[in-house]
Amino acid sequence: MGADIGVTGLAVMGANLARNLARNGYTVALHNRTSARTDALINSYSNEGTFVRTESLAELVESLERPRRVLIMVKAGAAVDAVIDELTGLLEEGDIVIDAGNSFYEETRRREAALAEKGLHFVGVGVSGGEEGALNGPSIMPGGSKKSYESLGPMLEKIAADYNGEPCCAWVGTDGAGHFVKMVHNGIEYADMQVIGEAFDLMRSLAGLEPAEQAGVFREWNTTDLASYLIEITSEVLEQEDELTGRPLVDVIVDAAGQKGTGRWTAISGLEVGSPVTTIAESVFARSISSQLGLREITNQVFPAGINEAVTAEELYGSGDARQDFVEDVRKALYASKLVSYAQGFDMLTAAAQEYGWELDMRTIASLWRAGCIIRADLLDTIMKAYEGSEEQPRNLLLAEEFTEAIAECLPAWRRVVAAAATYGVPAPVFSSSLAYYDSLRRDRLPASLTQGLRDYFGAHTYQRVDKPGTFHTRWSDDRTETEV
Ligand code: 6PG
User: What whole-number distance in Å separates Cα of residue 235 and Cα of residue 212?
Assistant: First the structure.
């Protein structure tokens, strides 16, 4: 009997997925460019299940049951193409190639089309949950053909995270849909972390709450509607003391946030599908600014932070009830901003579904993120409710009954926090841009009419009128009368 699935690329994510599959009773053929990794895995974990050692892709393919399933877990980009190129010569019609890395969805679309011509299924699978999730149950977002899911789905569902008996894995849509959904997950992940960071900074700078004390605040918040994995681990990071200096670890970590690119892709793709994911994009920019260490140092010397302003702020928020009230305001600002990032993420999914002809089901997508993944949160249950029923889906999550009240309740606090941040010079780019998104959506008239007027003035770009159909131009450099064009 051949192996059920082959895994190539045995760095920690690949190795953990392979072990997860083996632990669930599948026979897993293993391959890595250097066999040392394959051997290390087999030596340490052969008691977990059945592994087949192979030394080349040809041998890997040879060892598999038909239709063959080969899971690639290599660095996104050229390495994926290199493995695919080698595999396609070895596989036969009906076989399935799975890319479980964080590949860009356009590349997945391209690869899927190319392999389909050869009669092969190419399945881009979004996998979230980090190393721990890959081993014990990640959230899995498969794309590719529906046909491929018949053979692959049961396996993936078995190794996925479980939420109240339901697997956090479901086919989300054709070709690159799985990677697209995972990309949006990561964009939301960026925003989730940024709003946590802004709350931390505001509570420290304006209310004098030190990291260890804030660990307690976040722990408390984790019992509210903010309950989520990222809030939970924030307490753990904040209470960690540095062994070397005895200072809070968060104070000795360089304040320059890295990124591998998925958040940036979300922002770019948001622009491409015409969905204004401002909160998500702002979170990406916040990381970029943090990384401009040299420029920040110079600017800090030219415009030093306003010490007097901070003193005033501490006087306002730094003790007793005022501090309590401020902390509660920050919690509400965080929650409202978080809602905006989810609303934008789902709006972008809706736009992409139209653009690429995917049958994305928003309720299902929310269900996949309830366990196993980095953004798992109680909020996702509420989002599922908002998308329940086939008719009357909310145009935007902020308009869902489940959230309109929450937004109204948070709004005064949200405005107070954004105002305080601006008054005392604490950057809160995502809190404020989320509020601006909300205010823009609800505004009856936006200054875009003036933009249109200006565009028409310098470039005859034309405009529409509010009172009659048609397209118009004012002869700005002539007699300034209007013509219909
Ligand atoms: C996950 C994570 C994981 C990884 C991302 C983000 O869902 O398990 O999103 O995929 O952490 O690559 O990484 P960056 O923050 O480095 O962009």
Answer: 8
